[in-house]
Amino acid sequence: MAETVYRKSKQRQYILEYLRDTDSHPTAQMIYDGIRDEFPNLSLGTVYRNLNILVDQGQVNRLQYGSTFDRYDADTYEHYHFICTQCGKVFDLPLEPKENLEAAAEKVSGHRVHGHKIDFFGICESCGRQNENNAAS
After folding, report:
1. Does the model's pTM come out above 0.85?
2. What is the pLDDT of residue 43?
3. CATH of the domain spanning 1-76, picked from 3.20.20.70, 1.10.10.10, 2.30.30.40, 3.30.70.100
4. CATH code at 77-137
């Protein structure tokens, strides 16, 4: 299948740089809010189109957690995430991906496994401290 060739875009490059400079795993709206001063005529639709192109090119990962809005990550190496169920923030987890997990899944299922995704959910440190402070009040 032929690879789609996209024209260079200052907006797309700026979006990519914005994502590379943050570890907050922003939504398209957050990206739009963060860069619209640089591009006064920018629309949210343009941000979405450029994010889709960056995902197609493998430069950005789309993180889908079943919520209303996808989040985006410029770290395309295989890694896990922690999602706070209270504030919704997404954090990278510095754990080595478990390759033997894929072999085990193949063994028990009989299917060919090409990868896996594991996400961890709970309360982040900041929300935990806030909960403790609220309980102490």
Report:
1. no
2. 96
3. 1.10.10.10
4. 3.30.1490.190
